[in-house]
C-alpha cells in the first residue's frame, strides 16, 4: 500500500499558507475602512488624524491648558508645563518642564494620545515627540481676538468637543459685543507697562495680542505704531497717556512694581502717575490667548469706563 | 666711593626658577673703557647685562653704579646713568626715527610730554653721531638692519647716560656695518663721552676694539683683563671647546683669532 | 599716516563735526519737537517758563530726557575710546578693546546673578542694576589681575586669563538665565547696551568717575609711547614699567566699568576709534589721545541718534548699531593693513 499521509498533510499546509494572507488581507481591509474620528489640520498644515478622541492629553502651553479645562477636559490631561497655573486644578497635573524645552522623556512616559503645543514652544520639542510616535498639534493663530477663537475651535476639533468650543467662543463674542463702544475721539489714551527703567521701555506694541485687547476694551494704545514691544521713553512723555496698565513684573509683586514705577524719576512726572490712573492687571489673564481673554477685555473695559466718569 | 669704576659687582647670585646661574659672581668695570663681554651661548652674558641695568634682580649680592648701590637709584636716575641697546626686537609701530630717538630723553623730562630746545639739540647731536641725520623723518619700520641698530644707539646717546650697555649690537649685520658701528662706539669711548659695555660674539671684533675683556662660561667669569691677557689660545679653546690659531698682523695687542673649521 | 601739516585741519573738521552732530542730536526724536521750540526750551533753562510756546512735556523731553542722554553717550564714547587706546598700548595689541579684562562679561554676570538671587527684579530702582553691574565688572577685573599674578607678570598672561574668565562667566551667566527664563530677555536686552535710561544723576556719577579714570591718561602719553617698546628698553629708558602699567590699567578699568554699569556693553567703539585715529595721527599718544576723544564722542553720539530715530516709535539698541557700523569698517581696515605690509 502506498503512504498518502505526507501528501495529505502537505496539501493542508499549502492551503493554510495560501488562505491565511487572504483572510488577513480581508481583515485589514475591513479595519482600515474605519474613518478617523479626528482629522484636523494644525497650524503647520499637518493633518492630525486620530482614530479615537484623545483620552490622555498633554498641553505644552498655559493658554492651551486653560482652554482644555474650559472644554471640560481637565481630567483627560496627563501633562502640563510649569507655567500652566490656571485653573487651580491644573496645578495637580504632572508638570513636564518649561515652555522652551520640556522633558520629552516625561511626556512620552505619560503615554498621551495627543500633545498640543503653541508658538511658545520649539520645533525640536515637536520633532522629538513625533519621533516617539505621538501626534503633536501645533496651534499658532494671529495675535488677535479672532485668533483666540480659532485656537479654542481647533482644540475643540482635536478633542471632539466642537459644540462646547463653539459655545465658549459664542459666549466670549457675546461678552465683547455687549461692551458699549466708545466713540473714537472719547477713547482714553493707554500705555501698557511691560517693562520700564533700567531694562528699557517695553509695551504692548501694535503687533501684539495685548494691543487688540486694549483696543477692544475701548482704549487708544499709544504704542500702536511701535513694533516688537520696544517703545521710546520720550514718546511716552510726549503722548502722556490718560491711563497706564501695570502688570506685576518678574520677581516683584504689584505693590512693589507700582512703588518703583511711580517713584522712578523717569515716570513720576507723567499725568497718569500724578493722578493715580494706574490699572493693575493679571498679566496671565490678559496675555494668554485663551478662554479668559474676553473676561480680560471686559475687566479692562470696566476700568476704562470708570476712568471716563 | 667711585675710584674709577663705573660699575662694581660683588658676590652676585641669580637663579632662573630655582636653577642657579650666577653664584659668587664679582667683577669691576672701569670707566671710559670699551669693555667686551664674551662667552659661549647660554653663559649668562645677557643676564649679566640685565642685572647690571636693574632689569633683573639678584637674589644675593650687590651692584654698585658709580659707587652707589643700584637699588638706591630711582628708575629715572638710573636711566640717566646707564642706557641699554638690546638685541634688536623690531618695533611694529610707525614712529619716526626722530621720535624713537626722542624717547631717550624721557629720563630728563618733566611731567608733560614737551621737548625743550635743549632736548632737540641733544637728539640732533645723537642722530649726527650715528650718521642718521638724513633719516630722521623716516619711519622706524622702514629702516635696514644697520640703520635700525644705529638708531637704537642714537637713542642711548640721547639718554646722555655715562654707560651704554649693548647686547650683541652687530651680530646680524654685514661686515661694513659692523665696522661702522664699532668704530662709532669706539669713538664715544675715545672722546670720553661714555663707557661702553658690549656683548660681542666676534672675537676678532673684540680684539680690535676692546680695552678690557670679560669672558664668561656657564654663569661664571673665567677671565678678565686686556685682550692679550684673555684671548689666549688655551683659554679660548677651553671655554669655546674649539681649536683655534692665534695670529698677529699689525698690532701685537690685537691678535687675530682663527677658528679651525 | 597723514602728513603732519594736515593734522590741525583734520582736528578742526573733527571738532566741528562733533559739535554739529551733538547739537543736532537734540533736534532728533520721535516726539517731533520743532527746531524753533527747541531753541526756546534751551534758552528757558532747566525750569520751564510761564506762558511759553512749548508744552511742559516738550520741555521735559528736551531737558530731562534728550540732553542727559546725548551727553551720556558723548562721555561714554570718550571713556571707551580712550580706554581702548590704553589697552591697545598696554597689551601691545591693536585688537585689544576695553572689555578684554572681563568687564563686559563680569557686568552681565553680576546682573544675572543678582536677578537669580532675587536682588533685582523686573521692577527695580534706579541704582540697583548699575550697582550690581559695576560690582560684577570691577570684581572680575580685580580677580583677573590677581589670578594672573598682577601686572608683575606679562600683559599676555593678563590677556589670556581675561579670555579664559570671559568664557567661564558667559557659561555661568547662560546657566543662570536658563534656570530662570523670566529674566533672560530683560538681561539680554540690557547687555546690548542702551542710553535710554540716562539721567542727570547718572551722568554725574558716570561722568565724574569716568573722568577720574581718564584725565590722568593725559599725563601719561609719553609713557604710553615707550610702553610700546620691549620691556627691557622701556625700563632702561627710565619708565617704571610695572607702576605705570598698574596705574593705566586701574584707571582705564575703573572708567570702563562705570560706563558699562550705566550703559550696558556697547562694542566696537573702544576697538575701532583708536585704531582708525591711529591711521590718521600715527602711534604717538600725544596726538592719538585727543583725536580718540573726539572720534569716540562723535561715533557714540551718532550711533545713539540713529538708535533713537531709525525705527520711529521703537528703539534699536545702540550696541547693534555700533556693531553694524564697526564690523565692515573693521574688515576694510584689515584689508588695508594687509596691503600696506606688502
Structural summary, described in words:
The complex is a heterotrimer of chains A (309), B (261) and C (342). Chain A has 309 residues and is of the alpha/beta class. Chain A has twelve helices and ten strands. Chain B has 261 residues and is of the alpha/beta class. Chain B is built from nine helices and twelve strands. Chain C has 14 helices and no strands. In chain C, helix 3 runs antiparallel to helix 11, helix 4 runs parallel beside helix 6 and helix 5 crosses helix 6. The chains are: A alpha/beta (309), B alpha/beta (261), C mainly alpha (342). Chains in contact: A-C, B-C. The interface between A and C is large, with 40 and 41 residues.
Strand coverage percent of chain B: 25-35%
Report the biggest beta sheet of chain C as strand number plus sense, adding barrel if it closes: none
Shape of chain B: globular
Count of helix runs of chain B:
9
How far from one another are the termini of chain C?
16 Å
Percent of residues in beta strands of chain C: under 5%
- Structural class call of chain C reads mainly alpha
Name the overall outline of chain C. Answer: globular
Q: Considering residues with a beta carbon less than 8 A from a beta carbon on another chain, report the largest interface and each chain's count.
A: A-C, 40 and 41 residues
Q: Low-confidence runs of chain C (pLDDT<50, min 5 residues)?
A: none
* Secondary structure: helix percent of chain B: 25-40%
The separation of the N and C termini of chain B measures 47 Å
Show the helix and strand layout.
The complex is a heterotrimer of chains A (about 300), B (about 260) and C (about 350).
Chain A: H1 5-32, E1 38-41, E2 47-50, E3 57-59, H2 62-70, E4 77-79, H3 104-109, E5 114-118, H4 123-131, E6 136-139, H5 145-159, H6 162-177, E7 189-192, H7 209-216, E8 220-221, H8 233-239, E9 243-246, H9 254-263, H10 271-274, E10 278-280, H11 283-287, H12 293-308
Parallel strand pairs in A: 3-4, 3-5, 5-6, 7-8, 7-9, 9-10
Antiparallel strand pairs in A: 1-2
Chain B: E1 5-16, E2 19-30, E3 34-38, H1 45-53, E4 60-65, E5 68-69, H2 75-81, E6 82-85, H3 97-103, H4 117-129, H5 145-158, E7 163-167, H6 175-190, E8 195-199, H7 203-209, E9 212-217, E10 220-225, H8 227-230, H9 233-240, E11 244-247, E12 256-259
Parallel strand pairs in B: 3-8, 3-9, 6-7, 7-8
Antiparallel strand pairs in B: 1-2, 1-4, 4-5, 9-10, 11-12
Helix pairs in contact in B: 3-5, 4-5
Chain C: H1 7-25, H2 35-44, H3 56-90, H4 103-116, H5 128-147, H6 155-179, H7 181-191, H8 200-218, H9 221-227, H10 231-237, H11 241-263, H12 269-281, H13 285-309, H14 318-340
Helix pairs in contact in C: 1-13, 3-8, 3-11, 3-12, 3-13, 4-5, 4-6, 4-7, 5-6, 5-11, 8-11, 12-13, 13-14
Amino acid at each position: 500500500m502506498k503512504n498518502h499521509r505526507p501528501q495529505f498533510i502537505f496539501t493542508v499546509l499549502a492551503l493554510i499558507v495560501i488562505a491565511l494572507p487572504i483572510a488577513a488581507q480581508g481583515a485589514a481591509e475591513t479595519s482600515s475602512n474605519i474613518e478617523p474620528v479626528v482629522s484636523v489640520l494644525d497650524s503647520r498644515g499637518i493633518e492630525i488624524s486620530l482614530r479615537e478622541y484623545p483620552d490622555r492629553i498633554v498641553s505644552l502651553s498655559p493658554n492651551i491648558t486653560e482652554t482644555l479645562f474650559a472644554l471640560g477636559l481637565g481630567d483627560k490631561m496627563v501633562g502640563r508645563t510649569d507655567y500652566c497655573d490656571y485653573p487651580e486644578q491644573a496645578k495637580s497635573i504632572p508638570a513636564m518642564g518649561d515652555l522652551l524645552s520640556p522633558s520629552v522623556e516625561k511626556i512620552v512616559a505619560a503615554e498621551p494620545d495627543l500633545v498640543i503645543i503653541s508658538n511658545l514652544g520649539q520645533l525640536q520639542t515637536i520633532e522629538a515627540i513625533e519621533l516617539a510616535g505621538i501626534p503633536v498639534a501645533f496651534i499658532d493663530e494671529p495675535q488677535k481676538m479672532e485668533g483666540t477663537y480659532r485656537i479654542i475651535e481647533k482644540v475643540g476639533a482635536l478633542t471632539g468637543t466642537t459644540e462646547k468650543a463653539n459655545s465658549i467662543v459664542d459666549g466670549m463674542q457675546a461678552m465683547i459685543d455687549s461692551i458699549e463702544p466708545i466713540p473714537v475721539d472719547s477713547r482714553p489714551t493707554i500705555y501698557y507697562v511691560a517693562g520700564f527703567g533700567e531694562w528699557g521701555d517695553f509695551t504692548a506694541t501694535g503687533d501684539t495680542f495685548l494691543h487688540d485687547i486694549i483696543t477692544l476694551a475701548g482704549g487708544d494704545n499709544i504704542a500702536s505704531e511701535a513694533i516688537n514691544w520696544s517703545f521710546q521713553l520720550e514718546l511716552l512723555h510726549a503722548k502722556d497717556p490718560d491711563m497706564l496698565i501695570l502688570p506685576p513684573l518678574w520677581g516683584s509683586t504689584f505693590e512693589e512694581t507700582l512703588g518703583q514705577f511711580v517713584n522712578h524719576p523717569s515716570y513720576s512726572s507723567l499725568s497718569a502717575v500724578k493722578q493715580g490712573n494706574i490699572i493693575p492687571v493679571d498679566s496671565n489673564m490678559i496675555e494668554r490667548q485663551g478662554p479668559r481673554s474676553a473676561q480680560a477685555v471686559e475687566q479692562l473695559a470696566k476700568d476704562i469706563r470708570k476712568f471716563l466718569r | 666711593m667711585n675710584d674709577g669704576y663705573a660699575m662694581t659687582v660683588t658676590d652676585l647670585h641669580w637663579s632662573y626658577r630655582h636653577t642657579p646661574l650666577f653664584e659668587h659672581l664679582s667683577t669691576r668695570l672701569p670707566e671710559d673703557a670699551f669693555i667686551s663681554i664674551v662667552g659661549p651661548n647660554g653663559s649668562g652674558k645677557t643676564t649679566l647685562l640685565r642685572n647690571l641695568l636693574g632689569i633683573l634682580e639678584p637674589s644675593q649680592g650687590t651692584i654698585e653704579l658709580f659707587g652707589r648701590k643700584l637699588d638706591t637709584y630711582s628708575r629715572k636716575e638710573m636711566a640717566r646713568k646707564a642706557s641699554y641697546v638690546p638685541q634688536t626686537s623690531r618695533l611694529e609701530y610707525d614712529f619716526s626715527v626722530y621720535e624713537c630717538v626722542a624717547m631717550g630723553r624721557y629720563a630728563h623730562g618733566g611731567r608733560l610730554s614737551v621737548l625743550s630746545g635743549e632736548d632737540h639739540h641733544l637728539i640732533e647731536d645723537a642722530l649726527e653721531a650715528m650718521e642718521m641725520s638724513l633719516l630722521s623723518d623716516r619711519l622706524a619700520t622702514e629702516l635696514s638692519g644697520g640703520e635700525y641698530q644705529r638708531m637704537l644707539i642714537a637713542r642711548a646717546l640721547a639718554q646722555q647716560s655715562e654707560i651704554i650697555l649693548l647686547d650683541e649690537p652687530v651680530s646680524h649685520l654685514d661686515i661694513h656695518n659692523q665696522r661702522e658701528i664699532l668704530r662709532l662706539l669706539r669713538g664715544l669711548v675715545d672722546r670720553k663721552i661714555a663707557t661702553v659695555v658690549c656683548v660681542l660674539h666676534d672675537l676678532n671684533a673684540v680684539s680690535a676694539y676692546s680695552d678690557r675683556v670679560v669672558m664668561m662660561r656657564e654663569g661664571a667669569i673665567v677671565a678678565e683683563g686686556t685682550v692679550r691677557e684673555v684671548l689666549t689660545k688655551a683659554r679660548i679653546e677651553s671655554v669655546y671647546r674649539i681649536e683655534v690659531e692665534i695670529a698677529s698682523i699689525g698690532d701685537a695687542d690685537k691678535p687675530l683669532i682663527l677658528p679651525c673649521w | 599716516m597723514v602728513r603732519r601739516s594736515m593734522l590741525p585741519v583734520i582736528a578742526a573738521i573733527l571738532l566741528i563735526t562733533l559739535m554739529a552732530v551733538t547739537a543736532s542730536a537734540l533736534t532728533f526724536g520721535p516726539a517731533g519737537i520743532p527746531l524753533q521750540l527747541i531753541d526756546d526750551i534751551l534758552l528757558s533753562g532747566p525750569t520751564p517758563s510761564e506762558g511759553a510756546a512749548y508744552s511742559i512735556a516738550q520741555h521735559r523731553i528736551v531737558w530731562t530726557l534728550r540732553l542727559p542722554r546725548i551727553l551720556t553717550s558723548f562721555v561714554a564714547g570718550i571713556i571707551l575710546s580712550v580706554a581702548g587706546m590704553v589697552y591697545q598700548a598696554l597689551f601691545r595689541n591693536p585688537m585689544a578693546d576695553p572689555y578684554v579684562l572681563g568687564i563686559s562679561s563680569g557686568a552681565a554676570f553680576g546682573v544675572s546673578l543678582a536677578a537669580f538671587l532675587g536682588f533685582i527684579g523686573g521692577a527695580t530702582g534706579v541704582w540697583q542694576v548699575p550697582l550690581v553691574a559695576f560690582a560684577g565688572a570691577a570684581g572680575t577685573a580685580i580677580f583677573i589681575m590677581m589670578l594672573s599674578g598682577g601686572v608683575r607678570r606679562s600683559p599676555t598672561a593678563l590677556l589670556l586669563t581675561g579670555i579664559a574668565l570671559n568664557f567661564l562667566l558667559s557659561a555661568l551667566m547662560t546657566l543662570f538665565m536658563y534656570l530662570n527664563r523670566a529674566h533672560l530677555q530683560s538681561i539680554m536686552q540690557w547687555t546690548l547696551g542702551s542710553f535710554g535710561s540716562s539721567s542727570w544723576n547718572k551722568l554725574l556719577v558716570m561722568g565724574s568717575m569716568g573722568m577720574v579714570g581718564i584725565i590722568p591718561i593725559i599725563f601719561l602719553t609719553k609713557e604710553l609711547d615707550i610702553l610700546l617698546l620691549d620691556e627691557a628698553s622701556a625700563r632702561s629708558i627710565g619708565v617704571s614699567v610695572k607702576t605705570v602699567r598698574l596705574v593705566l590699567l586701574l584707571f582705564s578699568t575703573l572708567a570702563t566699568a562705570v560706563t558699562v554699569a550705566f550703559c550696558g556693553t556697547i562694542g566696537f567703539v573702544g576697538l575701532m576709534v583708536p585704531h582708525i585715529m591711529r591711521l590718521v595721527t600715527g602711534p604717538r599718544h600725544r596726538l592719538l589721545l585727543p583725536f580718540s576723544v573726539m572720534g569716540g564722542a562723535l561715533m557714540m553720539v551718532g550711533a545713539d541718534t540713529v538708535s533713537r530715530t531709525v525705527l520711529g516709535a521703537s528703539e534699536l539698541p545702540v550696541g547693534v548699531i555700533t556693531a553694524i557700523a564697526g564690523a565692515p569698517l573693521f574688515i576694510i581696515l584689515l584689508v588695508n593693513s594687509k596691503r600696506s605690509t606688502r
